[in-house]
Every structure is written in structure tokens, then in C-alpha cells.
Amino acid sequence: MIALWPKGNAAKLLRRPGYLLLVSLLALTIAACDSSSPTEPAPPSPAGNIVFANPQALAPYQATITQIIEDNYRLAGTRLSIAGVRVTVTADAARTIPGFGLGGYAQGPNDIEIVVDPAFGSLETSIAQYLPHIVAHELHHAARFRGLGFARTLLDHMVLEGMADHFAVDLLGILPPPWSEALSESQITEMLQRARPELDSSAFSFQAWFFGSGADIPAWTGYSLGFHLVSEYRTRNPGSDAASLVHTPSDAFRPPS
């Protein structure tokens, strides 16, 4: 703001007793009305926290990807404590979800990575349809890590993934993604029974439980079981959501015996 000292009649007015106090109080009132409430902090800004690891490979999509990340970072920040999370975008076809051209990884409480296959046939459509969900999903992981640390057991990972998908669905008002509803009801019952002996194990096969092992374990089983466990918890606890449950221990979602 540029301040100009008044002259003439305005200067005489300023010399009147009490006038400067009135002006000061008015200024303080305006400032208070203009500032954000300390109990309702503004959503975090991702500015400076988005890095493209190999920007040339993603040049045609960089502006769109950046905008989606920024929009969903701010939106997620209205529900979760995610200030300071760094988002790295990497062109890496081998680490994307098969058939989607995209993927996401939470590297820790302050870092998430979005991976993109620049040669994927319908990448523009996939970015528009699935990237908002992936960004919200990974940000929920980062927020959960800040309260509980990394997932260790099979149950930890199932709840971690299922809750992150619930968060993205709640936040964006969209349908669940294919990987969270990949099993029929009978398959959910069967695979939960199969999973019980390993729920508290940290030596389970993530590849098998979450990406499938042929006929033995269907693809995306871990994601679907986790989504189911969180759904069951929310049914038993009306009004609960994935944002408020972000730091709830995995054991609260354990399937009944």
C-alpha cells in the first residue's frame, strides 16, 4: 500500500483530539475483517512444490497436469493437513497402472510422486478422468503417514489404500475407481478368509495381494478388500469419513472373526 500524507483541511482534521485514535481503530477493524480466521487456515498452496523430473517427455501435458495437481492439492487441503507436500511428476511407463497410463506413489509424509506414460494411447482422457483421484489418493497417504508412520502389515496396507480411495471419492464426488470394486461379494468373502492368516504379517507379497497372482489371487484384491473394510466401518459409524479417520489405526477396520 502507498501512503500519502494529507494537506490543508485534512491536515487540520488529523490534529483534532481523538481523531487519530478513531482512524487507528477503524484501520484495525478493517484489517481484522480482511484477515482469515486463525481457526480456519487457508488451504495450502502447491506453488513451488510441483517438480517435473523429465519435463521434455511430458511437455504437451505439463500445463494440464500442473493445473489438476494445483486444484486438487488445494481442495484436499480443505480436509487434510498436507502443507509442504512435494509432488514430483515422472515419465515412467513401467510404473503406471496397466491400462491407465498413470500411477501414484506416496514416498513419505512430505513427498508424493505421479508417474505418467507419455506414449499411452488415450493419455489426455486418462489424465482428465483419473489424475484428480490419484492426486487426492496419494495426498491422503501422506497425511496418514504424518500421524501413523508407514504401513507395515497386510491389514495396514489394505486400510491405507481403501481409505485413500474413499477420501478421493468423497472429496471429488465421483464413483469408486475400478481397482476398489474389482471383486464380487462372494470373492470379497472368500479373499478375506484367505487374507486372515496374513493380516498381521509384514512379510506378505504386496505384488500378489494388490496386483494379483493369476488364478490364485485376482488383480487388485488388496485395494478392493481395503475399500470394503472402510465401507463396513463407515456403515457401523454413521457420519465418519476418510478425512476424519485419517489417523485411525488399522486395527479399527479389522474384519470380524
How do you describe this structure in short?
With 257 residues, this protein is of the alpha/beta class.
Kindly estimate the percentage of residues that lie in beta strands according to DSSP: 5-15%
Continuous helix count: 8
Oligomer: single chain
The biggest beta sheet reads: 4 strands, mixed
How many individual β-strands? 4
Run of helices and strands: HHEHEEEHHHHH
Give the radius of gyration: 25 Å
Cross-sheet strand order for the largest sheet = 1-2-4-3
The percentage helix is 40-55%
Approximate shape: globular
Query: What structural category do the secondary elements indicate?
Result: alpha/beta
Mean pLDDT: 86
Uncertain residue segments: 1-40
**Distance between termini?**
66 Å
